[in-house]
Amino acid sequence: MLQFQPPGFGHKIIHTSLGAMVYYTQTNAPWAMSGLGGAIADTENIRPLLFLHNFGGGASAYEWSKVYPAFASNYHILAPDLIGWGESAHPVRDYKIRDYLSTIAEFIIQTCRQPVTVVASSLTAAFAIRLAIVQPNLFKALFLVSPSGFDDFGEGAGRRLPLSVINTPVLDNFIYMLGAENEIAVRNFLQSFLFAKSQRVSQEMVEAYLTSAQQPNAKFAALAFLRGDLYFDLSLYIQQLTIPTMMFWGEKAQFTNIKLGRRLANLNPRAIQDFYAIADAGILPHLEIPEVFIGLLQRFL
To answer: Looking at the whole model, is its pTM more than 0.85?
Structure first.
């Protein structure tokens, strides 16, 4: 996925209990300033800013690639492909919530020398909340886009296929091939479900999602998400959050309606310090209208 990274960004690798985790960070000019003898200066003493991508067929750190260059002069940017996605390891397993809570924590411990500011979206943003409750020492602040456990208040965000179909061998391969590994389906998914305006979907976006979806064994994490194995009720946890948090929500977000967002935010007004509705955007405002999201994040950071 390196071909989709902005100039000056390269990839590094850390090793987690579930395998190698690739992440993107400043490696070259103009972001990584040269020190004596032309060596790249150490970015690790700069404040860390961690971007965590959403789930769904073809998801990867690419999701945040239009946003994080704007912060590269002042922060140590960390944008991992989570386990099972992008260029990171794709262990063949039935993925569970604990897999992501543990590997995200391992990633933070290995890459951050000080409490981290996290920018995350959707289900991964909900995982960040759970992690911040049990390991608050790792976090400085949370900036979350449409955080949802997809089963909030006991109201499922809705599986789009019956479990009997998803769990049928051969059929699950066919579903993944049809839905995530072909260009027409990927484009349609971005245009119809993730974005408010279909014309904002570029060919580069389609290719980035397709490239991630076509990685060997990519179907295992995607099907775990589709089956609902990673869903939970965020409303049962969010009241325990103490880390300063800001929520953003695309007004036209599908699956997770903005009314749900306000309801979740109202459960903990002490920690959730602001809730900002982004007009004319779907569930990924940071990819759909990155210039708007950058401006908002700069304001609140």
So the answer is: yes
